[in-house]
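[Automated response] Your request has been received and processed.

Submitted sequence:
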Amino acid sequence: MAEVDKACCSIPAVTTHGYKPKGTYTKLADLDVYTTGPTHSTRALIAVYDIFGFAPQTLQGADLLSHSLDALVLVPDFFEGNALPMSIYPPDTDEKKKRVGEFRQGTANIDANAPKLGEVAKEAKGKYESVKGWGCYGLCWGGKVAVLKSGAGTEFKAAGTAHPGRLAKEDAENLTIPFICLFSKEDGTPELMMEYGEALEKNKENVVEKYGSMHHGWMGARANLEDKENLKEFERG
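Generated structure:
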């Protein structure tokens, strides 16, 4: 733990705009994968982005985690270049609502994408043989994918999510590895957030934190890093 704490204290300053990602791209399981950090590391994370794909904030978060943990971090492009544009939110017109609904049922279908995470992990284990421990984390939509692949037969030793989407109590109950959940103030109804958090807290290895001043998406593509409070909580998360 001392090494991790020391590294965390040396995280570079967050770039509030015009961020230039530090990583490169490779191919795993027929997907383009953003790759950042030492390929010879003994630990690695696979990040599952939100519905806006390779957003600068999401890639910066991957770069910061890689730096602080001296870990390899991989961000697969599950949507193959067809993520939703930020202009679609809020979905306040019938046309926008239709597009979001079609995207969720098609490109972002959870049942179709969850197996892809397992496939990426299996190929990554063969490619990066120095890694002894693999973890994953997901943002919003990605949190649902991550939790579904953190039960029986998981490829990972630990997993987590920030501002999780599509909460289901049974997902938390089915976990077989340590899991961290960073809630915003609005990741579902208060009742659903409470029962999900309580299900996680039944296992003392899990961590549940609530960022009560933060909107859903504060760690991903919807992060407003020019806002001082969002920036502070992005860094803390």
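Summary generated for your ticket: Residues 1-11 have pLDDT under 50 and may be disordered. The two ends are 17 Å apart (CA to CA).
If you did not submit this request, please reply to this message.
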